[in-house]
Amino acid sequence: MDEGFVKRVVATIRCGVCGRRYEGDNVRILGHRDDLWFLSVYCPACHSHGLVAAVIKEGGPPELVTDLTEEEYAKFNQIAAVDANDVLDIYNFLKEFDGDFSHIFSKEKG
Ligand SMILES: [Zn+2]
Can you tell me the distance from the alpha carbon of 53 to that of 37, in angstroms, rounded to the nearest whole number? Predict the structure, then answer.
């Protein structure tokens, strides 16, 4: 397999520490056995090193494994990804939440 292709695939992965995407220049191929590749990655943003083991196959797009319905998939495909602000919102909500769902739902209706 073309090593440039493998590097491009790994460059779509984000650093586990700071979330920045790896760049092709920061990916070093250690070796592979059939479709299983071992790579060493370096994050230029937070200077952390990592090891990646990945099964990489050439050919068609990867199979989508999901339990979403077609309608749900279409819906979630269009809306923005969850970001830090969304997590903060739910954190703040849960901090105040007393567990009384009936209160929330009756409030939304009226
Ligand atoms: Zn990083």
Answer: 6
Cα 53 to ligand 1 centroid, rounded to whole Å: 18
Q: What is the dihedral of CA 63, 64, 70, 72, to 10 degrees?
A: -170
* Residue 60 falls in which region: left (phi positive, over 0), alpha (psi -120 to 50) or beta: beta
Distance 87 CA to ligand 1 centre (A): 21
Is residue 3 within 8 Å of 39, Cβ to Cβ?
no
Q: Give this prediction's pTM.
A: 0.47
Tens digits of per-residue pLDDT, 70-100? Answer: 888 888 888 888 888 888 998 898 898 888 8
> What is the sign of the dihedral through the CA atoms of 37, 58, 22 and 73?
negative
Q: How remote is the CA of residue 40 from the centroid of ligand 1, in Å?
A: 13
- List, for residues 26-48, the tens digit of each pLDDT value: 888 898 888 888 889 899 999 99
